[in-house]
């Protein structure tokens, strides 16, 4: 029986999917569902949809800046 290190993971010539390619569709769907839930909750709490969208965009910007090491 061949050892696991001897068994090819993908046949020759087949496209090898990167981690990013594998998780990006799921990440995008989760982001959309999360945005919908957050915006719906804000509107139910009395916010206008425009204010809720601006607040969510502001939070995303702050998060991106902190990941990049830029804190306001």
Quick gist of this model?
This protein has two helices and no strands.
Question: Helix and strand layout, with pairings?
Answer:
Elements: H1 19-44, H2 49-67
Helix pairs in contact: 1-2
Explain this structure.
This protein has 72 residues and is mainly α. The chain has one domain (17-67). 62% of the residues lie in helices and 0% in strands. Helix 1 (19-44) packs antiparallel against helix 2 (49-67).
Describe the global form.
elongated
Count of helical stretches:
2
End-to-end separation: 59 Å
Tell me the strand percentage band: under 5%
List unreliable stretches of 5+ residues: none
Mean pLDDT, to the nearest integer, reads 85
Largest sheet: none
Rg computed from alpha carbons, rounded to a whole number of angstroms:
21 Å
Helical content, roughly?
A: 55-70%
Structural class: mainly alpha
Number of strands: 0
Number of domains: 1
What is the N-to-C order of secondary-structure elements (H for helix, E for strand)? HH
Question: What key attributes describe this structure?
Answer:
mainly alpha, 2 helices, 0% strand, elongated
């Amino acid at each position: 029986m061949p050892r696991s290190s001897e068994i090819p993971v993908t046949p020759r010539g087949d496209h090898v999917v990167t981690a990013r390619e594998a998780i990006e569709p799921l990440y995008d769907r989760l982001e959309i569902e999360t945005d919908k839930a957050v915006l719906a909750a804000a509107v139910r709490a009395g916010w206008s949809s425009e204010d809720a969208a601006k607040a969510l965009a502001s939070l995303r910007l702050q998060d991106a800046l902190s990941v990049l090491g830029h804190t306001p």
